[in-house]
Specification:
185 residues; alpha+beta; six-stranded antiparallel β-sheet; globular
């Protein structure tokens, strides 16, 4: 049982299943939160019924000889809001936001978040990657991660698939067998 239970990660639940793809009055914003305020911001956005996504993963650590697990934000300091200008303003009233980043290419951000969500749902063991390096673009052609696109990176002589959130210049990687990958170029 996790020491800290999983907080709401996505509202509404179908946000990354087509809900967030329309381009009405709503648009994507990246909320850069104050230190360690991601879950509090997510709880308040849920109370306000403002659509958001806060990717979280379970982390297990040993404290005083006992294993403890907690759900932590995948991208420290960031919550993704999908709302109107009024929703953005309302999020600022929480007094937990340091900065709001505008999203230039909303389709790219939506696609990146959807792929990260797919990795989390598949319970793949993820590693956060910062400041992306160029590499070969690939797509997974079979298995639980079929359709996920990313970049091949090598770490300790093992093949890893890097899925990027380009706006943040961060991403996550998962160890994968290279025979599951097909080049995009």
């Amino acid at each position: 049982m996790p020491f800290l239970g999983e907080e709401p990660a996505c509202y509404p639940e179908d946000l990354l299943n087509g809900f967030g793809a329309d381009n009405g009055e709503r648009r994507w914003w990246v909320l850069h939160t104050k230190a360690r305020q991601e879950k509090s911001v997510a709880r308040q956005l849920l109370d306000f019924e403002i659509p958001f996504y806060l990717p979280q993963v379970e982390k297990t650590s040993v404290y005083r000889g006992r294993k403890r697990s907690a759900f932590i934000p995948l991208f420290t300091g960031y919550v993704f809001l999908y709302g109107t200008e009024q929703d953005r303003f309302r999020s600022l009233t929480t007094n937990r936001i340091a900065q709001v980043l505008s999203v230039v290419d909303e389709a790219e951000l939506y696609n990146d978040l959807r792929q990260v969500w797919q990795l989390i749902v598949a319970k793949a063991p993820l590693t956060v990657e910062s400041r992306l390096e160029p590499g070969q673009r690939v797509r997974v052609h079979s298995g639980a991660l079929m359709g996920v696109e990313g970049t091949v990176v090598s770490r300790r002589k093992k093949c890893r698939l890097l899925v990027a959130v380009h706006l943040l210049q961060q991403g996550v990687s998962v160890e994968i067998d290279d025979f599951l990958l097909e080049p995009l170029d």
